[in-house]
Amino acid sequence: MSSSIEDLKTKVSELTGALKVKEDLLAKLVEDKAKVDLQLPQLQDAVSLAKKCLEESLEQKKYIEEIVSSGLTEVFGVEHTFCLETVLGPDGTIKGLKPRLKEADGEFDDPIGSFGASASSIASICFRISILLLSRGTAKVLILDEPLANVSPTLQDRFRAFIETICKQTGLQIVMVTHMDQP
C-alpha cells in the first residue's frame, strides 16, 4: 500500500509540475497577446501607409505611361501605347519595370529594339519629362543635348508642337542644344 501512496504522490507531483508549466505558458501567451494588442494599431497604420504608397506609385506609373503614350501618338499621328510592365523575381517580389510599346492594335514589344531610333528618342524624352513633372521640390527645367538627332524633320516639327503644349500646361522649361537651323 505504501508503494501505491508513493506512486500517487509521484503522479500528483508530475501533474502539479505539468500544471505549473501550462500555467506559465498561459501567462506567457497572455503577456504576448497584450504586446500584440498594443502593436496592432501600429501594424494597421503601417499596412495602411504601405497601401497608400503603392496606390500613389501606381498612379505615378499611370501618369508616366500616359505622358509617353500621348507624346508618341502626337508625334507619329498613330495611336501608341506605352506601359511599364512589372518584372517579378523568382520569389514573386517586384524586381523592376520593363518598358513596352505597341503601335495601334499591334502587340507590345521592346521599344528600343523594335521601334527604331525615332520612337526610342521621343519615348525617352517623354519619359524624362514625366519623371521631372512628378518630382517635388525641384525646378522644372530639362536640358537636352541633341535630343532629336535621329528624328526626321517632319517628326521634329510635330514633337516641337507637343513639347510646346506640355510646357504651357505644366510650366516646364526645356532647353535643347542642337546644331540644326530650327529646334
Pick out its properties:
16% strand, two-stranded antiparallel ribbon, two-stranded parallel sheet
Report on this model:
The protein has a two-stranded antiparallel sheet with strand order 1-2. It has helices at residues 2-76, 111-114, 116-134, 153-170, and strands at 80-88, 94-103, 141-145, 173-177. The protein is built from 4 helices and 4 strands. The model has no long low-confidence stretch (mean pLDDT 83). Helix content is 63%, strand content 16%. Strand 1 (80-88) and strand 2 (94-103) form a beta hairpin. It is of the alpha+beta class. The relative contact order is 0.09. The radius of gyration is 32 Å and the shape is rod-shaped.
Poorly predicted runs: none
Count of helices?
4
Task: Return the average pLDDT rounded to an integer.
Answer: 83
Label the overall shape. Answer: rod-shaped
**If you compute it from the alpha carbons, what radius of gyration comes out, rounded to the nearest whole angstrom?**
32 Å
Structural class: alpha+beta
* DSSP helix fraction: 55-70%
Distance between the termini: 112 Å
Kindly state the number of beta strands.
Answer: 4
Give the biggest sheet.
2 strands, antiparallel
Q: Beta-strand level of the residues, as a percent range? A: 15-25%
Strand order of the largest sheet: 1-2
Order of helices and strands: HEEHHEHE
